[in-house]
Structures are given as structure tokens and as C-alpha cells.
Amino acid sequence: MLQPKKQKHRKVFRGRSATKGIATRGTKISFGTFGLKAVSRGEITSRQIEAARRAMTRYTKRGGKIWITIFPHKPVTRKSSEVPMGSGKGAPDHFVATIKPGRVIFEMEGVDPNTAKEAMRLAAHKLPVKCKFINTLEK
Description:
Helix content: 10-25%
CATH class of one domain: Alpha Beta
Strand content: 25-35%
Order of helices and strands: EEHEEEEHE
CATH topology of one domain: Aldehyde Oxidoreductase, domain 3
Largest sheet: 4 strands, antiparallel
């Protein structure tokens, strides 16, 4: 699963302002021919990214090439179960990538459009944000 090798701060503020507005970077396909673009906002965990990647890889029978254009940098903390309130913030539990509408999450190349569309549809089911399939061949 994806996680940073090194980070400046072990814990970060929980603020929701990171997901406000629409994406200005990473909105166009830059590597492949087909893409999966977020339509809603949210946080995607490293496990969800891996599950979506596996779904696409299995459907394409390891054909073509897949790029993951997001990375989970943000640590999310969790307090252990049955711990009373107070006594500070919990320990880092997992990492998430914050997603704004318009952000391209996955890119794909080297497969036919129908296969790519179905693979991206399967991947979108694994993610907590609404997504749409985009294609550079149609323009």
C-alpha cells in the first residue's frame, strides 16, 4: 500500500478546508489515453487506491499500463478502542489523499476503449467519490 517514506509532521490538523473548491492541478490526462476523473470530493485511503488498482489490473489481464496520479500524504489518527475521552490525539492509523472535483485519479493506456471503460467502472466502485470515465480519443 502507498504511504510516505518520510514526513515533516507525524500528525496533521483534521481541517476540511483541503477539500473545498475544485481541483486546479491534475485535471487533464497527462500520461495515458483514458482516465478516471473525480466528480465529487472526499478522502481516498491507500487501501482503496490499491483495491481499485487491483480491480483494473485483473480486468485488463495485466495488459496496457496504469498510472496512479494521486498519493496518500495525509496521516489520519485513531485512538485505540475503549479508551476514555481526553489524553490527547490518537496515533497515526492510515494515510489518505484528499480529492477535489475534477481531479484525475487513474490513467490507462494500451487497451481498447471498451476494456478501459469497464476496468475504470470497476475501479470507481471501490472508491468513496463519484467518478466519470474520460477519453482523449473522442476530442
